[in-house]
Amino acid sequence: MDEVQVVVAHSERATLRVGDVFLKVDGDQGNLDVEVEAMRLAPVPTPEVLWREPQVLALAAVRGTALGRLGEPSPASPEAWAAAGAAVRKLHEAPLPPWSAPAGEEIVARLDGECEWLIANGVLPADLVTRNREVAELAFRPWEPVFAHGDLQITHVFTEGAEVTGIIDWSEASKGDPLNDLASLTLGHEECLDDLLAGYGTDVDLDVIRAWWSLRSLLASRWLIGHGFDPNEPGAEFDVLRAAYERS
Fold first, then answer.
1. CB–CB of 103/140 below 8 Å?
2. Cα gap 102→61, rounded to integer Å
3. CB burial class (10 A; 0-12, 13-18, 19+) of residue 236?
4. What is the pLDDT of residues 113-138, one digit of tens each?
5. In terms of DSSP bridges, do strands 146-148 and 174-176 run parallel, antiparallel, or are they unpaired?
């Protein structure tokens, strides 16, 4: 009998591995519905859906290894990062999905609330939070929506050699900002950005990517702390915010 391994678990959802099968359990059935439909529409490699039950989705494991982990040097080659960039570009050029991400006004309101919480609770110095909030403002420029993954973390892209073998965790896919995906994938791995963009193959405003690094780190910190994760680990979200502050 295969051993059950907990991949991730918190109050909102859990992912378990049983042999070569991943079981995603989510209290919000809508998240699983979006994930399945996004994988059906996406023109890039995705996990095979094995079966579905209410609030449970079974997926086959994908070949290869993840590009890396936040806080650790990426073991992937420049060619693997370029292949990831090409895959993201292919996704962004695909027809738009029929659903949208939260509106910019909603994100701004949430961002302001998170900044207030970080300062009021002494989690980070006020000047560091304020400066990163200023940097993040550039992410709210006008942009043309694309088919975006929405949560394109470095652990969600798998490669084998110079081939992308699978992109996982599609529950936040939507019409979205293309630079959010590029920033999410390189969060804490700025040294890999040039290789990613070599495969993506178009001019990108690096200041907007940096804005998204600050924005995502500010938005995620309270959630991470509240769910038992540490954004202050080396290379994680707090280090991203400190780097942005030092650049300014």
1. no
2. 30
3. buried
4. 999 999 999 999 999 999 999 999 99
5. antiparallel
Task: Please name which of 43, 46, 47 lies closest in space to residue 89, comparing C-alpha atoms.
Answer: 43
CA distance linking residue 64 with residue 160, whole number of Å? 5
Coil, helix or strand at residue 28: coil
DSSP code for 236: S
Please answer whether residues 139 and 176 qualify as being in contact, where contact means their C-beta atoms are separated by less than 8 angstroms.
Answer: no
Cβ atoms within 10 Å, residue 79: 15
The owner of tokens 């701004």 is 108
- Give the helix ranges, DSSP H, for the chain: 29-41, 78-92, 104-120, 126-136, 178-186, 193-200, 206-226, 237-247
Element (DSSP H or E) covering residue 169: none
The candidate with the shortest Cα–Cα distance to 216, out of 238, 247, 248, 196, is 238
Pairing label, strands 146-148, 157-160: unpaired
For residue 244, the number of C-alpha atoms closer than 13 Å in the C-beta half-sphere is: 30
Tokens of 218: 């500010």
DSSP-based three-state secondary structure for 39: helix
> Consecutive 10-residue runs of the chain (248 residues): their mean pLDDT?
64 82 90 95 97 94 94 95 98 94 86 98 97 97 95 96 96 95 96 97 93 97 92 94 92
Alpha-carbon distance of 248 to 244, in angstroms, equals 6
Q: What angle do CA 10, 133, 242 make, to 5 degrees?
A: 75
